[in-house]
Amino acid sequence: MLVANRLDRAITSHWHGLHVPGWQDGGPQTLIAPGSRLDQTLEIEQPAGTYWYHSHPHGETGEQVYLGLAGMLLIEDAGSSHTELLPVEYGVDDIPLIVQDRAFTRRGELAYDDDGMALMQGFRGDKVVINGAISPKKHVPPGIVRLRLLNASNSRVYRFQFDDGYEFHKIAGDAGLLPAPVRMDVVELAPAERVEILVDFSDGRTRQLVSPDVPVSMMGGGMMGNGSMGRMMGQGASSDPDQMLLILTLEVDQAKKASKIALPTLFSQAPSPDFGEPVRRRKFQLNMMMGMGMMGAMLGGKADLGINGKTYDMGRIDETIRLGETEIWEISADMMAHPFHVHGTSFQVLSQNGRRVDYASTGLKDVVWVDGSAEILVRFNHPAGPDAPYMYHCHILEHEDAGMMGQFTVS
Questions:
Q1: Which residues does the UniProt record annotate as the domain Plastocyanin-like (predicted)?
Q2: CATH of 280-410, one of 3.40.50.300, 3.40.190.10, 3.30.70.360, 2.60.40.420
């Protein structure tokens, strides 16, 4: 991988979801200065799937990703039997979809704000763009089509569905294939999550992929949950769950030839969880406000967000982890829900709010939606030293930039 920085500010190149050593991970400690280049050889030892990359400098990740420093990264395995079962013609029946929301000035320029309300709930634009285009149309063949969806928005959650309620099959999550396709009519993606779905267009009908305007997920009752503050934070005034956002129009072109006309039933080479017995538990609490009042932040002040009562400090190692040991991490969130991302590995989600999560419906993950609490089973097979540690953080990028992040070594 060659990354050249032609900007006037430092960037990084974080390979989101890749299992690489800390010094190659592209976290805040490994800046690429203006005018510099980074040339890396990445050794890929993980399942085929849909991954991505983005800039990750502390305090500027939200703005840099929003302005364009992000993209999709596909890992393929030509020797795997699943390539015989799935659509694989890039851009024809295997279609990457990078989903982001954007706000524009009257001149058509990108507008970004990370203060006040944007800090508290994360920045949310009023236009959805797909691969950089607003409300695009895609012509597809009359057969099985594979859509790879990446939520690359700074904070928005999507519940993808078709306008006519048409069913589809989920075949992969963040880190590779599921054991078998799962039928559904709605799939939810928090920021940084990915999903692959198969859609059968053999009936020739045009369909629109849509999502409701999902409100910010606040927790608790009274003022924060359902009262005036809850509405200000996105449960009423700033989001309308009855409004459908148009994501993409898919129109069948009978002149295109479908390479697959039948749905697969089983993926024999899909990854399976093989972590071994956990040797310890760790607890992480995502803290919304520290050291100042909420109203002050909403009125334009700065807030310190944190994890386990500490805001992020580049000079502090928060956790020390043993190479190759399996752990259970318990993550809890106060005030609102958060997507929690762990660098350098993939994990299995064991439970959410005390309810067991079925691996067959999620597969391996690197982001977990924490709306209350979650447990994950995790192991690290690559080292990360104190000069280039791994990160764990909320993937609402404005929360990450405000300090809802920690760092850890693996040795």
A1: 3-78, 304-410
A2: 2.60.40.420
H or E element: which one contains 66?
Answer: helix 61-66
Count of beta carbons in the 10 Å neighbourhood of residue 263: 15
Q: What is the per-residue pLDDT for 228?
A: 33
Across the chain, which distance is largest between two alpha carbons, in Å?
62
Q: Which fold has domain 2-78?
A: Immunoglobulin-like (2.60.40)
The burial class, CB within 10 Å (0-12 / 13-18 / 19+), for 335 is middle
Residue 340: closest CA among 350, 329, 324? 329
Q: Are strands 355-356 and 207-212 parallel, antiparallel or unpaired?
A: unpaired
Give the pLDDT mean for 346-356: 96
Dig out the tokens for 1 from the structure. 């991988």
Residues 95 and 7: their CA atoms lie apart, in Å, by 30
If one compares 120 and 331, the residue with the highest pLDDT of the two is 331
Report the candidate in 97, 13, 103, 1 with the shortest Cα–Cα distance to residue 50: 97
**DSSP state at residue 320:** E
* Contact between residue 14 and residue 26 where contact means Cβ atoms under 8 Å apart: yes
Q: Any idea of the CA torsion for 62, 16, 95, 261, to the nearest 10 degrees?
A: -140
Lookup: tokens for 347: 């994990």
Cα gap 116→355, rounded to integer Å: 35
* pTM (2 d.p.): 0.92
Which pLDDT score, from 0 to 100, does residue 304 have?
77
Going by pLDDT thresholds of 50, 70 and 90, the confidence category of residue 272 is confident
N-to-C CA span, the chain: 25
Residue 388 neighbours by CB distance under 10 Å: 19
Question: What are the structure tokens assigned to 270, written together?
Answer: 């899909």
With beta carbons less than 8 A apart as the criterion, state whether 305 and 287 touch: yes
How is domain 82-252 classified at the CATH fold level? Immunoglobulin-like (2.60.40)
Token pair recorded at residue 132: 């950089």
Give the tokens for residue 89: 């013609």
**β-strands 244-252, 207-212 pairing:** antiparallel
Which letter does DSSP use for residue 84 in this model?
Answer: G
